[in-house]
Amino acid sequence: QVQLVESGGGLVQPGGSPRLSCAASGSIFSSRALGWYRPAPGREGELVAAISCGGVTSYADSVKGRFTISRDNAKNTVYLQMNNLKPEDTAVYYCKMYGWGSSYWGQGTQVTVSS
Predict the structure, then answer these.
(1) In the sheet that 19-24 helps form, which strands lie side by side, from edge to edge?
(2) What is residue 54's predicted lDDT score, i.e. its pLDDT?
(3) Contacting residues for 15 by C-beta, under 8 A, at least 6 apart
(4) To 10 degrees, the CA torsion angle through 42, 44, 48, 53?
(5) What is the pLDDT of residue 41?
(6) What are the Cα distances from residue 70, in Å, to 1, 54, 56, 75, 82?
(7) How many whole angstroms separate alpha carbon 24 and alpha carbon 3?
(8) Distance between CA atoms of 19 and 17, rounded to whole angstroms?
(9) How far apart are CA 76 and CA 92, in angstroms?
(10) Residues of 18-50 as b/e, b for ≥16 C-beta within 10 angstroms?
(11) Which residue in 86, 52, 46, 92 sits closest to 69, CA to CA?
(12) 1, 18, 29, 104: least CB-packed within 10 angstroms?
């Protein structure tokens, strides 16, 4: 059973730079792509950032240049470094691990950007 546990959210001032973490159980982490999502119109919401098992990254236009996704396969953990946060970044952020016909979601971590 694969489990994903996010952490690092909270109340952040505009311009703040929190880092989200998502730790995965199991042994398939290094062979799966990973993504961070936040709710938006549509089935899976907005894909904020993604990283392939080979380390190739992609970002939504709304966060490009401000957010950085990275992964540490030795720690089974994916990170989302968030810089220069704006009030419109307020959301629950979900981690997803996917590939080879399967996908797994974390429970989400709330990020609230407010002064």
Answers:
(1) 4-7, 19-24, 77-82, 67-72
(2) 94
(3) 84, 85
(4) -140
(5) 73
(6) 23, 11, 9, 12, 11
(7) 6
(8) 7
(9) 21
(10) bebbbbbeeebbeebbbbbbbeeeeeebebbbb
(11) 52
(12) 1
3-state secondary structure of 9: coil
Distances (CA, A) of 78 to 17, 41, 93, 114: 16, 25, 13, 25
Task: Write out the H or E segment, with its range, that includes residue 82.
Answer: strand 77-82
Q: Report in angstroms the alpha-carbon separations of 12 from 77, 94, 96.
A: 22, 17, 23
Instruction: Provide the Cα torsion 98, 5, 9, 19; round to 10°.
Output: -60
Helices (H), the chain: none
Question: Do 108 and 42 contact (CB within 8 A), yes or no?
Answer: no
pLDDT tens digit string along 13-61? 999 999 999 999 988 998 999 999 999 876 778 999 999 999 999 999 9
Pair of tokens at residue 45 = 């919401």
Q: Dihedral, CA atoms, 25, 29, 30, 34, nearest 10 degrees?
A: -140
